[in-house]
Specification:
Length: 231
């Protein structure tokens, strides 16, 4: 059975070592990177199951590393940052992170979030693998096994969360999902800021799909209720 490897990227050695200590206690392997460039090199050289990234790192910041990772990989990413505002958290999630933990942090809470993300990622992959239903609607084609999307033959680059939201909505045409329900199913947890987070993801998803200029929009807003797929 393959062991789980966690990437810990933080330029503060004491924090990285503290996280590594608790990761090791959980039975996981780990790789420590002290800057963003080393973090991305680790992802390229090793089989990483989850990444814990500080945002403010030398060479490349956490946002840049996430963008590079998301071009090739879908593993869970947890941001660890001293930035504590709601806007910072939402920005981090929109950038492609799966969770956001603020400093100072409780190591046990961080490990609980690591376990939750690994569990959700495994369940999601098993669910998609079991279904493997290609969805086609109005020029849009969603390939769940490759986690790829094309619109009128042109590939659309989506973050993992954008893909998950689109696939969820498209799997149940006309069904209305509330923002809270979308967050619970895609992120796998209840979250107080779920409405704003989902709204921002829907906005960027629509932009990538060219919904701003489209007459017949694929993603419909049901005011006061939520969102549905109009395929």
């Amino acid at each position: 059975m393959k062991s789980i490897t966690i990437l810990i990227a933080d330029d503060e050695a004491e924090i990285a070592e503290l996280i590594a200590l608790h990761v090791k206690k959980e039975g996981y392997d780990y790789i420590i990177a002290s800057d963003g460039k080393a973090a991305f090199q680790a992802v390229q050289a090793h089989s990483i199951d989850l990444a814990i990234l500080d945002i403010m790192m030398p060479e490349l910041n956490g946002y840049d590393v996430t963008r590079l990772i998301r071009e090739q990989h879908n593993m869970p990413i947890i941001f660890l940052s001293a930035k504590t505002s709601d806007l910072d958290k939402i920005s981090g999630l929109v950038m492609g992170a799966d969770d956001y933990v603020t400093k100072p942090f409780n190591p046990m809470e961080l490990i609980a979030r690591v376990n939750a993300q690994l569990r959700r990622y495994k369940q999601l992959n098993q669910s998609i693998a079991a279904d493997k239903k290609v969805i086609e609607a109005g020029g849009l084609v969603i390939y769940p096994d490759q986690r790829a999307v094309s619109l009128y033959g042109e590939t659309i680059e989506l973050t993992p969360k954008e893909f998950d939201i689109l696939y969820l909505l498209a799997s149940y045409p006309k069904k209305v999902f509330s923002a809270e329900n979308i967050f619970q199913q895609v992120w796998g947890e209840a979250y107080l800021d779920s409405s704003n987070t989902v709204m921002v993801h829907i906005r960027t998803l629509r932009k990538k799909l060219g919904e701003e200029k489209a007459k017949n929009k694929l993603i419909k807003t049901v005011w006061g209720v939520g969102y549905s797929f109009n395929g």
